[in-house]
Amino acid sequence: MSAKIEQLVAMRLNTYFKHQPDTAALAELKTELSADLNEAANDKAASGLEPEEAVAGAFSDFGDINALIKQINEENGTAEHVHGHQVIVDDNGIEIDDGKTLKINADGLSINNGTIKADANGLKVGNWILDEHGLQNQAETDFDDERRSQQRGQSQQQEQSQRPGETSQPETDADQEQSTTDDAATDESNQHVTANLDDVYRERHPLVNEQRVSLTGLAHIAINYRAATVKVLPTREAGDDVIIRDYMNYNNPAYYSQVTTFEDRLEIVQGKVPFLIPLRVHVQILIPASYAGQLTLSDRSGNVIMGNLQHLSELQLQVVSGSARLVAVGMTTFTSEVTSGSLTMADVQVAEQLVLNVKSGRARLLDVAAGNYNVRVTSGSVSGQQVRGGGQWTAKSGSIKLALAAINGDTTLAAHSGSIKVSTPTDASYRYELESQSGRVTAPHFAQVDHHADGYQAGRVGTTATYLISGRARSGSISLR
């Protein structure tokens, strides 16, 4: 670190904070800005710039610091303590001790909870008011006002007694508008997910950095972000480069994606995440559509969008407290873990194994096919429409609701304390075996029943009945339609 750069950064920052209140939030912000800007300026100096130019460039790249300070004040308040008093200075005026000691704003001035008050109506000191009518005692004025108010109230009661049958409106316009909005709301499960992802290439934040890595020789791309919107899409350019584009509201090289390669592995990791600066990061990772290697993607608290990549050998996805959307993606194997987040898969083809583990989250499958499913839900939910393939579906304490488009494999359903509902095509043919210890089991009413006992049913639907659907429930329920 250059002492000269450190001094120049401190001098510039002081001009931004000179007239700001002395709050803990702003003190933390100033410290964080100082570290980030020093780092950015030293990087520029290392490329050959003079300290003055490097510092000016770092501040210019970063963005509007005044707007950032304003946002921090709005989010954390501008209160400071002066000699035991709390002072707030903002666009609304000045307050000391929440306005009890002193309050100055567009309405006027108030001291000591209004003991002394000056506004457009005049000057008030104690019970005395000085206005255009002269000097008056407030106690006498209040008595006269109260008497006149009582007289008006008696007159209104007499008028109302002469108009019986009038009722107040049962619902306001706002209530009616809210009711209309509620009635118009649609269930998320019915929303259509399209494979047209043209819009996701456009960003509202400025592009601050772009990096390129040749795809040649790469067999594994690993992506890891903590708090960002990550979009993994096919590149629209000719060539075999993987393109990493950072879009963000504050520009600092420390925040850029960190890209490294090791033999046949490309690692893309989120840069520094500031503690107090409200950084918004959108990242586009553009991969040639021909890529047929392994892809690992983890995003802890952001959003993930992946689409139109059809030749992946393996996809591993981890979502924590965020959301992920896969559209028109094809792969040999797929493994995903969703914790307190959500996953939507639409038009997804998995040639072999699909493994999905949902913990306190939600997964939605629309037109998904897999050679074999291994889905486990704990305190969450999985719903599926147009699902193809057999395998294992387990609900420990959550729920699974499936609409199968085809039965082309044995399917095992297990419900511990959750519930499982499965519907099959009208022309489907299969065998079934359902058993429950203390839960409810429902079999198709048009099935041919082979065995029926307390808590147990077995039979067949159709004539060919190649595959078996088996269900076991402890204290949950299984419904097969």
UniProtKB/TrEMBL annotation:
<protein>
    <recommendedName>
        <fullName>DUF4097 domain-containing protein</fullName>
    </recommendedName>
</protein>
<feature type="compositionally biased region" description="Polar residues">
    <location>
        <begin position="164"/>
        <end position="191"/>
    </location>
</feature>
<dbReference type="Pfam" id="PF13349">
    <property type="entry name" value="DUF4097"/>
</dbReference>
<feature type="compositionally biased region" description="Low complexity">
    <location>
        <begin position="151"/>
        <end position="163"/>
    </location>
</feature>
<feature type="region of interest" description="Disordered">
    <location>
        <begin position="142"/>
        <end position="191"/>
    </location>
</feature>
<dbReference type="InterPro" id="IPR047928">
    <property type="entry name" value="Perm_prefix_1"/>
</dbReference>
<dbReference type="InterPro" id="IPR025164">
    <property type="entry name" value="Toastrack_DUF4097"/>
</dbReference>
<feature type="domain" description="DUF4097">
    <location>
        <begin position="278"/>
        <end position="455"/>
    </location>
</feature>
